Automatic annotation (TrEMBL):
<protein>
    <submittedName>
        <fullName>FAD-binding protein</fullName>
    </submittedName>
</protein>
<dbReference type="Pfam" id="PF21688">
    <property type="entry name" value="FAD-depend_C"/>
</dbReference>
<dbReference type="InterPro" id="IPR049516">
    <property type="entry name" value="FAD-depend_C"/>
</dbReference>
<feature type="domain" description="FAD-dependent protein C-terminal">
    <location>
        <begin position="276"/>
        <end position="469"/>
    </location>
</feature>
<dbReference type="InterPro" id="IPR028348">
    <property type="entry name" value="FAD-binding_protein"/>
</dbReference>
<dbReference type="InterPro" id="IPR036188">
    <property type="entry name" value="FAD/NAD-bd_sf"/>
</dbReference>
Length: 524
């Protein structure tokens, strides 16, 4: 017999299986010896008040063990001899597009400019050692995309639970913990996600698809107003080779592929400037955030997870908000080329470091930047990243300032120990960063400090600059079939095309583009 229950319990019950069984036996009248298994289906923490509770939906197995997997399995077929679809980019949009194509009986041919997920890790380690960035293998470029080594957070505000659940189940099928199906803010972890990505790639290969690493698209192949393939440079060997790949194209290149945006602009392929958000990475000691969020001087205690936060307000007519919050994590260098410094955040699966960080960013709309250049938001990003690099002594060393010093327009004479491996240098962010950003951050921090006592503190450090929150352009496509508004056979996809904002939403958009590519092939 199985029964489902909605319960509200203390953390020591929610996060301890023996205690949870004992609670259910007492509250629901079961003999403890007959409860063979308790599966947590949904879990969320209610920390609004001093007493912390955890809301659970559980499935209790009485006198029987589960006969099914904890996740829904997708069947993938052999597509070795099926029509090909070119997938440019192997981030979450490209990966889920590829797997969906296989479901639909089509053969994905994946082109990834960077290296496989393991080899790119070596290049990322060199950023700290050499203070230089490989422009084709870094925290943004390579198998798995920007999310592979920047946390693997799977939270989305999408209300379409069906597609969200499908994405999470596919992750579980490829090795992610089934806890992501239960948690309100699911998270795989930077240390666990690479293996999951490898398994997804192996599914593509085992089913007859292709994955080409270090192969960068340079242009589309056109037949009139129809996209029939792409040209790409194969950089795997000492001598680069230009190759051509034919088929409809799902363009999922990610939000940092600026060469792609420049190519599209030069080729007069329709797109538009899109708003982003820019600011800093703000890092606190994790125990301080635990104390604030859990209303307890002892912090999270034995059972609760490392605390998260989410802040949003309006300042001088623009939104200011926390972005990509990483409890128990690290701040990482996310530049994709020379003479730029960019920050991002990540957390391991256990969220166990002594720091917690988040982007603190200000909404930037196209009308906030003068001119009508389609790439003006991208140029704004580039200038801010270059200015940050200059302030960081022309290295990946990041300029930083204590939070309270920033509020008082005061240089920090020393900086706290921080997680950013390339190192920090004290810098007056309030002076050299655009006032559009700094004045709004200062106003917002006053608000956040009132909402969470202790948040506005000199124990926190601001690390410049956070700029890669989303794509600075939107590649225009039709709403109905997701195809480019003029070019048949081109499907702008996911975050790089301006239609997603994170791993899950990119995965959903990848699946939708695959479905539309399949429908397109059926018509021609």
């Amino acid at each position: 017999m199985t029964e489902d229950f909605q319960i509200r319990v203390l953390p020591q019950v929610a996060y301890n299986e023996a205690n949870l069984k004992a609670y259910l036996a007492q509250e629901k009248g079961f003999d403890p010896e007959t409860i063979y298994r308790v599966r947590v289906l949904k879990r969320s923490i209610d920390a609004r008040h001093r007493d912390i509770y955890v809301n659970l939906k559980v499935r209790v197995y009485v006198n029987e063990f589960p006969q099914d997997d904890a996740y829904v399995k997708t069947e993938y077929q052999d597509v070795s001899n099926k029509p090909s679809v070119i997938v440019v980019g192997e981030g979450p949009g490209g990966l889920f597009a590829s797997l969906k194509l296989i479901e639909l009986g089509l053969r994905p041919v994946v082109l990834e400019r960077g290296k496989n997920v393991r080899d790119r890790k070596l290049d990322m380690a060199l950023i700290t050692k050499t203070q230089e960035v490989d422009p084709e293998s870094n925290y943004c470029f390579g198998e798995g995309g920007a999310g592979a080594y920047s946390d693997g957070k799977l939270y989305t505000r999408s209300k379409k639970r069906g597609p969200v659940d499908k994405i999470l189940n596919v992750f579980c099928q490829h090795g992610a913990s089934t806890s992501i199906l239960a948690d309100a803010h699911p998270h795989i972890g930077t240390d666990k996600l690479p293996r999951v990505i490898e398994n997804m790639r192996n599914t593509i290969l085992d089913c007859g698809g292709e994955v080409h690493f270090q192969t960068k698209m340079t242009s589309l192949i056109l037949d009139g107003n129809k996209v029939v393939g792409v040209k790409a440079i194969d950089n795997r060997n000492a001598i680069s080779v230009t190759r051509e790949f034919f088929g409809p194209v799902i363009l999922a290149t990610g939000h940092s592929a600026r060469d792609v945006y420049r190519y599209l602009a030069d080729a007069n392929i329709e797109m538009e400037a899109k708003g982003i958000a820019v600011g800093v990475r703000l890092e606190h000691p994790s125990h301080l955030i635990d104390q604030i969020q859990y209303h307890n001087k002892n912090g999270k205690g034995k059972y609760l997870p490392t605390a998260e936060y989410s802040f949003v307000t309006q300042a001088q007519g623009r939104g200011v908000y926390s972005f990509c919050m990483c409890p128990g994590g690290f701040v990482i260098p996310s530049a994709t080329g020379p003479e730029q410094t960019v920050t991002n955040g990540m957390s391991p699966a256990n969220r166990g470091t002594q720091w917690s960080n988040s982007g603190m960013v200000v909404q930037l709309n196209p009308e906030d930047v003068e001119g009508d250049d389609l790439l003006r938001i991208m140029h704004y990003q580039e200038k801010l990243e270059h200015d940050t690099w200059l302030q960081g002594n022309r290295k990946q060393t990041a300029p930083a300032q204590r939070m309270a010093d920033f509020m008082n327009n005061r240089l920090s004479y020393d900086l706290p120990k921080a997680s950013y491996a390339p190192g920090l240098i004290s810098s007056p962010l309030h002076f050299w960063m655009p006032s559009f950003i700094t004045k709004r951050l200062q106003e917002a921090f006053k608000t956040f400090g009132k909402q969470a006592h202790g948040f506005l503190t000199n124990e926190a450090v601001m690390i410049a600059s956070e700029t890669r929150t989303s794509s600075p352009v939107r590649i225009l496509r039709n709403h109905e079939n997701l195809m480019h508004i003029r070019l048949e056979g081109l499907f702008p996809c996911a975050e790089g095309a301006g239609y997603a904002g994170g791993i899950v939403s990119a995965g959903i958009d990848g699946e939708r583009c695959a479905e539309m590519a399949s429908a397109y092939l059926e018509q021609i």
